[in-house]
Amino acid sequence: MGGAGPQGPVAAAAGDGRVNRRRAVPVAVVVAAPALIALAVLTALVLARSGTPFAVDTAVRDVALNHRAGLGPAAKALTSTGTGVVPYLLAGVAGWIASGRALGVVAAEAVLGAGQLVRIGLRVAVDRPRPPADGWLSAAHGASFPSGHATTSALAGGLLAWALLRRCPGGPGRAAAGCALLWAVGVALTRVVLGVHWASDLVGGWLLATGWLALTLPVLARFPERPALPVRPWWRRRNPRIG
């Protein structure tokens, strides 16, 4: 997701040690401020146009509609994981991985839930119309900006990536965190493929998720944690005499 995704706050808040905790607040401000300022600018532009799509929105939609043959079923399957129980399940797993405690699970769920409330408030305030329904491959309801699927998957995927990097900072942890972020990007892109969102709706969701994670992950990082997971191959962990 580049700059408009959860990687920045995830990397900033991951890891352990007193140095990380001392830098948590300044890093949070450095990451959150640009994301939230960019979101404010984008929101103002959307409002100024009364919801009329940008030229890039129309161009991206045309490309998606002209090249999505055969992608409908896969896009519907992937997009279904970006709402409902799955994101909250991932957030709960993230809280448990990060702290190994029920309180950590509750805190991670609270981050996701509160982020949803912010997103819903922004969506109601902007009230941007969705793209024309004649291009939809999936049912959709409510206003268009910011994308609920993009925001939700970025929050859940970002939480999980942060927890994995925090508990298993080696190669396996980075690979798993990358998969979590790729899932979030994939879910968001399906909304354009299915014709129910403009591309700028996704950007708005990513910016909101980035800013929100940057503000909240340093708080989660203060929860006590278990020792980091070993990064040794499984066969060495099962038989200490090997190697």
TL;DR of this structure?
With 243 residues, the protein is mainly α. It has helices spanning 7-13, 18-48, 55-66, 72-79, 85-99, 102-126, 148-167, 171-193, 199-220, 234-238.
Structure description:
By secondary structure, the chain is mainly alpha-helical. It has one domain: Vanadium-containing Chloroperoxidase, domain 1. 69% of the residues lie in helices and 0% in strands. It has helices at residues 7-13, 18-48, 55-66, 72-79, 85-99, 102-126, 148-167, 171-193, 199-220, 234-238. Helix 5 crosses helix 6 (102-126). The longest helix has 31 residues, at 18-48. The protein is globular and about 50 Å long. The model is unreliable at 15-19 (pLDDT under 50).
Q: CATH topology, what is it called?
A: Vanadium-containing Chloroperoxidase, domain 1
Number of helices: 10
Rg to the nearest angstrom?
Answer: 19 Å
Q: What is the 3D form? A: globular
Instruction: Give the topology string: H per helix, E per strand.
Output: HHHHHHHHHH
CATH classification, class level: Mainly Alpha
Helix content: 55-70%
Largest sheet: none
**Class derived from helix and strand content:** mainly alpha
The total beta strand count reads 0
Contiguous runs where pLDDT drops below 50 for at least 5 residues: 15-19
Count of all domains = 1
Strand content: under 5%
Q: In CATH terms, what is the architecture?
A: Up-down Bundle
Overall mean pLDDT: 86
Q: Measure the end-to-end span.
A: 40 Å
Domain Phosphatidic acid phosphatase type 2/haloperoxidase: 102-217
Protein name: Phosphatase PAP2 family protein
Keywords: Membrane, Transmembrane, Transmembrane helix
InterPro entries: PAP2/HPO, PAP2/HPO_sf
